[in-house]
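[SOLVED] Predicted holo structure with LGZ2M252

Edit: marking solved, answer below. Original request kept for reference. I posted the sequence and ligand SMILES and asked for the 3D complex as structure tokens.
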Amino acid sequence: MQDGNGLDHLAGERAMAQFDLQAMKVYLAGGQREYEISTKMAQLVANDPVFSKEDRVRLARKDLYKNSLRKAGHAWKTILEKGLSEVEGLKLRHFVDEPTYTDLHWGMFIPAIKGQGTEEQQHKWLPLAYKMAIIGCYAQTELGHGSNVQGLETTATFDPTTDEFIMHSPTVTSTKWWPGGLGKASTHALVYARLITDKKDHGIHAFIAPIRSLEDHTPLPNVTVGDIGVKFGNGGYNTMDNGFLRFDHVRIPRENMLMRLATVTKDGKYVRSNKPRQLGYGAMVFVRQGIVIDASIYLSRAVTIAVRYSAVRRQFGNKDEPGELQVIQYRTQQSRLFPLLATAYAYRAVGFWMKSLYADVMKRLNDNDFSTLPEVHACTAGLKSITTSVTADGIEECRKLCGGHGFLCASGLPELYAAYVPACTYEGDNTILLLQVARFLLKTLSQVSKVRPVGTAAYLGNIKQLSTQNCKVSQGHDWLNTSVLLEAFEARSARQAAAVALRLAKGSGSEAEFQENTPELVESARAHCQLILVSKFIEQLQTGTPEGIRKQLEVLCYTYAFSQLIDNAGDFLATGYVTGNQIALAKEELKHMFDKIRPNAVALVDAFDHTDDYLGSALGRYDGDVYTHLYKGAFKESLNDTVVVDGYEEYLKPVLTQNLWAPHSKL
Ligand SMILES: CCCCCCCC/C=C\CCCCCCCCCCCCC/C=C/C(=O)SCCNC(=O)CCNC(=O)[C@H](O)C(C)(C)COP(=O)(O)OP(=O)(O)OC[C@H]1O[C@@H](n2cnc3c(N)ncnc32)[C@H](O)[C@@H]1OP(=O)(O)O
Ligand SMILES: Cc1cc2nc3c(=O)[nH]c(=O)nc-3n(C[C@H](O)[C@H](O)[C@H](O)COP(=O)(O)OP(=O)(O)OC[C@H]3O[C@@H](n4cnc5c(N)ncnc54)[C@H](O)[C@@H]3O)c2cc1C
């Protein structure tokens, strides 16, 4: 079958690129070694039929889940047989590309034991977990409480007569609800419960509770456990067994309480360590930092599909050019698509920085230096919130950018969205997390005269200057200066934070007043996070990006910053730092950036190096042969298994032949 569009268009697109594609691929992978591992693992997964993603959206839940178990088991076997390193294993998981119980085992159960277990406890549990002789999940959220961790109701009551904790779910709302891997796969749960000794409630602590037999996988006595049900979308997050769990006075040994932060002695004495209790939230900080780079990956997948398709798709034309125009030529398409492309690059840069931030705080914590913990918490919480919200919306925007075909599962976009959108809720609801950032900003501002803010909050030390000086841009190209841009984001954020802080300071300090101001607090937290994103993208650019890609990265960086400035023009204007005319000048500069991106757009998404197997999209294929594959794909639809549809005899034929409604019809 002939395809009149695809192949030629993408070849022509690629020929226009003005940068070193290979260098960009290596940059985006995080280095040469990472690039090589990534390429090797992508091929390994694509060439192994067990990992096929074909038909995922058509499978019934039971089959989907069983297939996911098969893939996870096969992945683990492959890792062991090939002796893959941890980095290779992680990449393999990445390309298998479906949420499954191993994510929670490796991503939360193990990190929580590392962070909260004593050395002795780590020696006991980690070897079992590393060889997957036990499978663990992270059972924090309950039916009644998720965000409010202090409100959890599950109890762990110490019984000194037997040296055990009695795990109990006293109410319906205390049922553990949501933990991934809990529903069907886990043998153990890391349970967050209220510790009670001698009738005294010491608040939330972590316990390792065996929940299924290691012999036959049946639930242990007095444990009720299962899957919570089908979730949003076909495929998507339904490969995961999010579960429920109830305990009816289940006894576990005293040693199963993770005791690095607090201890219960044999005689029932509760002893707190001098470490901050927030270390109990460490597993969440770990996952939140990783979510930023994941956001870049998910967004880059959607953008790859939308950019390639926009270069293939033609609609209308104009009298100046022969034939129809590629839809990527339309300014409106560019103004919706290119900022998302730039955002995917921005999140990659910031994700790299987050890794180093996390490594730094872990080193400090090991040396009992807790000084940067509040800032790291604010960064991870805030950036998790912003990047997941923007990415989820961005995937949906890319679907719309692909017109009608974007709505087909064959585009890969509906499933991508369904798999991604819960990221706005898990690991902390995005609004709750922004409120955490706002509290951090308020605290920083309240101490600014005594304690000089550091790290991402350092600019608040210049609050006086940022509150009084206004933007000096008078011509479009004045904006092409990273210091000018940075100052604009700093001034806007500082002014928004100061305004709400001042309003609160003038009040009585009541919780009601705080609540009244939460919309402004959330806006100021968002402004602070947008500043971090812009500043870290700029910082990455300035620290040794290879010559062959620097110019393109600069263009993407300006595109990102200008689009943020324009999307939030209301806030910038309201602070009084910029004028309407300055915003208009930035708009013009943004259009110039679009012109610079346009010839490079396809190569810029090629640089993400997503294989066709990983993208799983007829629209985003590397060869651009969209229409042939959409057409061929229709023949895989189960409704087309027979030429005459099942149900014809019972339901269609009577309608067609008996003329059931005719006697009553007035037509
Ligand atoms: C395919 C097969 C492959 C097989 C291959 C196998 C091998 C391969 C190898 C590996 C593969 C796997 C790799 C894994 C990848 C990893 C991916 C992981 C996937 C994740 C999937 C996600 C699943 C989802 C999980 C969850 O959702 S878990 C539950 C999350 N819950 C929340 O986030 C709850 C949100 N609520 C809170 O965080 C808190 O309750 C609160 C809102 C912060 C309020 O807490 P509270 O105690 O009431 O505090 P406050 O009084 O407000 O604040 C006190 C104080 O503490 C500070 N604070 C708060 N939080 C923190 C923190 N986290 N850190 C530090 N500090 C914190 C806060 O600022 C206050 O400070 P001040 O007192 O100074 O003001
Ligand atoms: C796919 C998925 C996987 C998950 N995996 C796990 C897991 O493995 N382990 C685990 O323990 N949990 C898991 N969770 C649970 C998840 O962490 C919680 O759902 C999340 O923390 C949000 O809590 P919530 O459901 O209680 O939302 P709620 O807090 O009830 O939020 C409902 C609404 O109320 C608003 N709201 C709540 N409190 C406030 C406030 N103080 N101020 C302003 N607005 C407020 C929120 O912004 C939101 O709009 C998972 C959830 C999902 C969807």
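OP edit: Confidence is low (pLDDT under 50) at residues 1-6. Thanks to everyone who chimed in.
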